[in-house]
């Protein structure tokens, strides 16, 4: 991901309307997956925004959704100049976007630590920006995927915080029958129908009895064998092609083989 600076300037006194228009524009970019974590500051003669980009060209107009275009038109109608953008550099805490020409399969994966796209390339495991994904059920590309990501990350944070909802959150993350897993697998199924390559759902596992015993477990959906001969991307040890599931040996018993 890249850090970008965006500067808005205008020739008007209606600052309240300008703020609302800029906030609507930023919200549209977030919903389209073109930026994350925008921070807005009022400066002399306009506003300055710092945000993260999934890829260096994320703000190019060819990636704009209908909502982004409408928000851009709202800026122009108020006399707000076309924002000036400057890419500052890569975000050292986030993975670089996938640049593979061909992606043999995709993985729906996220956690509370990242703001990157939850759609990962099966070849390089780099995030695939959601604005590049085909539309699913809504009129705006990627909205369902980002909504699912928000819920997943909230539950992941609840589990990590080890509070009163820890057990509930862990079940949502690790149980193939949970509402969270059901929604994620449905999204993966819809996306697979659009992109024409397999899309797997990541099922997290933390608790286990032993490394050896955990490697003997079966796919929780079809009960078939799914242990891979070698770990994929250094942590995915299981893959069921029939059920489109991937998972890991339980983290608390895992013995590294690398």
Can you walk me through this structure?
- The structure is a single chain.
- This protein has 258 residues and is α+β, with helices and mostly antiparallel strands.
- The protein has 2 domains: 89 residues, Alpha-Beta Plaits (2-Layer Sandwich); 142 residues, no CATH class.
- Helices cover 30% and strands 22% of the residues.
- The chain is built from 6 helices and 10 strands.
- The strands form 2 sheets. It has a 6-stranded mixed sheet. A 4-stranded antiparallel sheet has the order 2-3-1-4, covered by helices on one side.
- Helix 1 packs antiparallel against helix 2 and helix 3 packs antiparallel against helix 5.
- The chain is elongated, with a radius of gyration of 21 Å.
- The mean pLDDT is 89.
């Amino acid at each position: 991901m890249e850090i970008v600076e965006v500067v808005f300037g205008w020739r008007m006194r209606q600052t309240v309307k300008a703020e609302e228009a800029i906030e609507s524009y930023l919200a549209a970019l977030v919903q389209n997956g073109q930026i994350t974590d925008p921070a807005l500051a009022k400066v002399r003669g306009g506003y300055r925004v710092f945000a993260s980009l999934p890829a260096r060209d994320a703000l190019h107009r060819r990636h704009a959704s209908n909502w982004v275009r409408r928000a851009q038109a709202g800026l122009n109608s108020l006399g707000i100049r076309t924002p000036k953008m400057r890419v500052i550099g890569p975000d050292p805490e986030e993975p670089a976007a996938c640049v593979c020409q061909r992606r043999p399969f995709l993985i729906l994966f996220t956690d509370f630590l990242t703001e990157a796209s939850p759609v990962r390339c099966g070849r390089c495991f780099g995030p695939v920006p959601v604005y590049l994904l085909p539309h699913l059920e809504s009129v705006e590309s990627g909205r369902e995927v980002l909504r699912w990501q928000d819920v997943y990350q909230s539950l992941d944070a609840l589990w990590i915080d080890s509070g009163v909802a820890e057990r509930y959150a862990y079940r949502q993350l690790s149980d193939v029958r949970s509402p969270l897993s059901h929604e994620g697998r449905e999204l993966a199924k819809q996306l697979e129908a659009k992109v024409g390559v397999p899309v797997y759902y990541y099922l997290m596992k933390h608790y286990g009895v032993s490394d050896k015993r955990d490697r003997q477990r079966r796919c929780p959906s079809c009960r078939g064998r799914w242990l891979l001969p070698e770990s994929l991307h250094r942590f995915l040890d299981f893959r069921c092609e029939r059920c489109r599931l991937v998972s890991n040996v339980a983290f608390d018993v895992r013995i590294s083989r690398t």
